[in-house]
Amino acid sequence: MWPCAFVAFIPLFSVLRNASRNEALFFSYFSGLIFFSGSIYWLTHVSQFGCIFLILYFALFWGLFGILGHGILIGKSTACRALTFQNPIVTALILSFLWTGIEVVRAQLPVLGFGWVLLGFSQSLHLPFIQIADCIGVYGVSFLVMVINVLLYATETSFKEKKGVARFAPLVMVILLFILMYSYGNFRLRAHPSGNLLRVGIVQGNIAQADKWNPVLKEKIIEKYAKLVEFISYDGPELIILPEASYPGNFKKEFPGSPLQRVVQKTGIPLLIGAIRFESAEEEYNSSFLISGGGDIVGQYDKIQLVPFGEYVPWKRLFSFLGLTKLAYSLGVGDFKKGKEFTVFTHPLNDERHVFSFSTLICFEDIFPALARTFVAHGAQFLVVITNDAWFGKTGAAAQHVHASVFRALENNCYVIRSANTGISAFISPRGNVMDTVHNEQGEELFVMGGITRAIFLSSSKTFYQSMGFVFKDLCLLFLAAYVLLFCCYSSNLFKIKKLHS
Question: Which is nearest to 237 in space by CA: 265, 197, 194, 195?
Answer without folding.
Answer: 197
